[in-house]
TrEMBL record:
Keywords: Secreted, Signal. This is Complement C1q 2. One of its GO terms (cellular component) is extracellular region. Pfam families: C1q. It comes from the Eukaryota. Its main location: secreted. It is found in: Secreted. The keyword Glycosyltransferase does not apply. SMART domains: C1Q (SM00110).
Length: 177
C-alpha cells in the first residue's frame, strides 16, 4: 500500500510542477500555491405585483401611467405606486404581464411603455366587459422604466375595482444585453 501512496504522491508533484510551468497555477515567493477565489454571485431577485383598486379609470384619462395602487409584492423596490412605473434596480432581461378588465360600455387601448417608447399594446373595441392580458420580455438598463398607459379618449376605460386589473414583472436574467 505504501508503494501506491508513493506513486500517487509523485504523480501529484509532477502534475503540480507541470501546472506551475504552464502558468495554470502560479508559484508564490514562498513556494506555496497561490490561493485563488472565485466570485460566485448570489442570484438577484427582482419581482413585483400590483393591483388597481381605485375604480374605473377613463374615459379621458390623462395619458400618464396607470397607477396600480395596491402593491402585494415588491422585491427589490422597483415598482412605485405613486408614479405607476417600474424602475429597473439592475440591468437585465425582464418579463412583464399586464391584465385588465375592459369597462362595460367602453373600448380600451393600453400601451406598454419602455422608458418613453411604446413597445406593445392591447386594443379591444367591442364595448363589453372583457379580461385582456399581455406578457412581454424586455431588456432594461439600470434605472430604465417600464409602465402601462391607458390612451386618452372619450371611449376608453378600464375597470379598476376588485382584482381584475394588475401589473407585475420579474427579472429573468441579470446583465447587459
Amino acid at each position: 500500500m505504501s508503494f501506491i501512496s508513493f506513486v500517487l504522491f509523485g504523480f501529484v508533484l509532477v502534475l503540480t510542477e507541470h501546472f506551475i510551468a504552464c502558468n495554470v497555477v502560479p508559484k508564490t515567493g514562498s513556494d506555496e500555491v497561490e490561493k485563488r477565489t472565485v466570485n460566485v454571485g448570489i442570484p438577484t431577485v427582482v419581482a413585483f405585483q400590483a393591483t388597481l383598486t381605485t375604480g374605473r379609470i377613463g374615459p379621458n384619462y390623462a395619458r400618464g401611467a396607470i397607477k396600480f395602487n395596491r402593491v402585494t409584492l415588491n422585491i427589490g423596490n422597483g415598482y412605485n405606486p405613486s408614479t405607476g412605473k417600474f424602475t429597473a434596480p439592475i440591468a437585465g432581461l425582464y418579463q412583464f404581464t399586464v391584465t385588465y378588465l375592459q369597462q362595460n360600455g367602453y373600448s380600451s387601448y393600453v400601451r406598454l411603455i419602455k422608458g418613453s417608447t411604446a413597445v406593445s399594446q392591447i386594443l379591444a373595441n367591442h364595448k363589453k366587459y372583457d379580461q385582456l392580458t399581455k406578457t412581454i420580455l424586455v431588456t432594461l438598463t439600470k434605472g430604465q422604466t417600464f409602465w402601462v398607459r391607458l390612451e386618452r379618449s372619450s371611449s376608453y376605460a378600464v375597470y379598476g375595482a376588485g382584482r381584475y386589473t394588475q401589473f407585475g414583472g420579474f427579472l429573468l436574467s441579470a446583465g447587459n444585453y
